[in-house]
Amino acid sequence: MRLMHWAVAALLLVALAGRAAGQANPPEVPGENGGWRSGRATFYGGPERFLQSFADRGPPPEYGFGTAVFGSCGYTQQNFTEGVTYDNVPYPKEMLMAVANVDVDYPGSCGRCYEVRCHSGYVYANGTQIYNITQGYSLPAHAPNATDDFGRTWLGNPTEAEQLQSVQCWNDNASIYVIVTDSCPCVQTDINTGAITGVNPPCCGDIYHMDLTYWGFEQLAHPLNGIISTQFRPVDCTTKQPLQFNPGFVNQTIYGERVETGWGWFPYKHNTVTFWSQGYGVGGSNATCISIGPTAGGLTLACRECSQSGYQPFKGASALEFWIRDQNGSSTIPDVQVGLGNYDNKHYCASVKTGSLSSVERQGLYAKFSVPISSFSCPFPQEQISQVSFQNSEGQLVSFCLDNIQIVGASGSGRVQSSSIGRHRI
């Protein structure tokens, strides 16, 4: 939670059907009202205009509300040499969302899409216990007349006299669509030492919890509520069609028109990088492009907590397929190291260099490679593989684009149709 921050300047939404070979739709839920589940939501981030009314919670500019700029799924498009703003984020800020790491479908949750609506009435902590307004989530006591970005004031709490948290939504039937870009840890730890530094009670309970951004939250209810009851359901990111709630769903296409459902995107020690570059993919589609070197760096695509039973995207897989091209227009295929590993345990397989491989197909500047999983000589069971990495050698300067990264022949998790929200420049 509180680790993601991204925004959109000149966002172009492109609704493209899934095109990657071998993809299939997950089971859809019939009827408009199918598949709704009960949950709860808080918010993080927000405009300083609103947050500064709560200076007692923390220092500016976040005032203790955190920020949605740095997300645990990666996706931030910059090299940390400049300030990060929502212009570095590939999705609209109202769509960004963190899921609690105790939620049943937390494993492989990066990139999943949900439809969420507010549910008026009591807000429950755990089980049947109702939140007390003195627990710190309800905000009206500090600034009862604060308005949201639409100039609206708080609708009030019908059970305020009993000190119970009860919310009046703007419209219980109105919904928003969000995409998982971050996580809300139940237990907070120091990033360097691993020492426990605190807990996030809403993200520890037995009620499904989401942390929306301020801008998503305010579309459902006034931010002064602080915490609301919700109804939610997973949806296809492109069509918005409701899907069955299936925690095991991880796309076996890792990158199609975007980083696909289940996968985080983590560039490191790079010069430039783009989450998606329109027109740079196979046949003019989207691609993810990176420039690295001379320091060793690269791009890792990983499925968090996916080595456990029920997920395991590489279980039974025969090969890793991908398309690669030189970013600067050369017909020479970049010689990069391709590796597999276990993201959570930090265990790694041997790497394979594209320069030692023969392509199975050429299309324009692109070459397609199909690498048998056995070529990576993993020192642990294949079903424990949960990441793919592309990197340079120390001292090598290389710029390349990737598209259609796929796991071939896997039997582990389900597949979901590719979805695309295209944008960006190189």
From TrEMBL:
Signal peptide: 1-22
InterPro entries xrefs: Expansin, Expansin/allergen_DPBB_dom, RlpA-like_sf
Domain Expansin-like EG45 intervals: 70-242
SUPFAM superfamilies: Barwin-like endoglucanases
Any single biological process term in GO: plant-type cell wall organization
This protein's UniProt keywords: Signal
Keyword check for Signal: yes
Protein name: Putative extracellular protein CSOL_074
Biological classification of the source: Eukaryota, Viridiplantae, Chlorophyta, core chlorophytes, Trebouxiophyceae
